[in-house]
Design a protein that fits this description.
single chain, mainly alpha, 10 helices, globular
Length: 148
C-alpha cells in the first residue's frame, strides 16, 4: 500500500501525524472531491507534502530579512506551528470543535488535535455534506493564516 513519503518524514522529524497511516491518506480525499478552488486544494497538497513556505525555511535559505519567529508569539514559525499550534490556528480548531459539539457530533475524534491538523472524513462523526462544508471553511482559514 502506497503511503506518501511525507508521512515518514513527519514521523522522523517528530511532527504531528495521524496515529494510523490510513488516516493520513484519507486527508488527501478532499483534494479530489472538494468544490474548493484549485489554489486551496493546492495549498492543502503542499501542506501534506511538507512543501509550503515558512519563515523558518526562509531563514534556513539565508533569505535577506528573513525572521524565523512567529509574528503572533515568540515561537519558531514553522508551517506546523502556524497552521496547528499558534493562536489563529487554535481559534479555528476551537470554532470547528464548538460547532460540532453544538450539532451533537461525536467528540472523541474531534478532541484529537492531530485530527484537527489533517481533517479527514469519518462517517461515524458526521454526514459527508456537512464535512465538505466544514472542510472548506477549515482549509480556507488555514490558507489565510499561512499568509499572515
Amino acid at each position: 500500500e502506497f503511503i506518501p513519503e511525507s508521512y515518514e518524514t513527519r514521523v522522523r522529524d517528530n511532527e504531528d501525524v495521524p496515529r494510523e497511516k490510513k488516516f493520513f491518506k484519507y486527508s488527501y480525499k478532499m483534494l479530489k472531491y472538494s468544490e474548493a478552488p484549485a489554489s486551496t486544494r493546492s495549498f492543502h497538497l503542499e501542506y501534506l507534502h511538507r512543501s509550503l513556505n515558512s519563515r523558518t525555511k526562509h531563514e534556513a535559505m539565508n533569505m535577506a530579512g528573513a525572521d524565523a519567529f512567529c509574528v503572533h508569539c515568540t515561537c519558531l514559525s514553522s508551517t506546523s506551528h502556524v497552521l496547528n499550534d499558534c493562536v489563529l490556528a487554535k481559534i479555528t480548531q476551537k470554532t470547528i470543535t464548538e460547532f460540532c459539539r453544538y450539532k451533537g457530533y461525536n467528540q472523541d475524534l474531534l478532541a484529537d488535535e492531530t485530527y484537527l491538523s489533517f481533517l479527514w472524513w469519518d462517517p461515524k462523526i458526521m454526514d459527508y455534506e456537512t464535512f465538505k462544508q466544514i472542510w472548506i471553511v477549515w482549509i480556507e482559514t488555514r490558507r489565510h493564516i499561512h499568509q499572515v
